[in-house]
Amino acid sequence: MVFSRRNYQLLLLGVALVVLGFAIMAIEHELDGFWSRNVAPIVIVVGYLEVIWAILWRPRASKTTQ
Question: Which end of the chain is more exposed for a tag (fewer CB within 10 A), N or C?
Answer without folding.
Answer: C
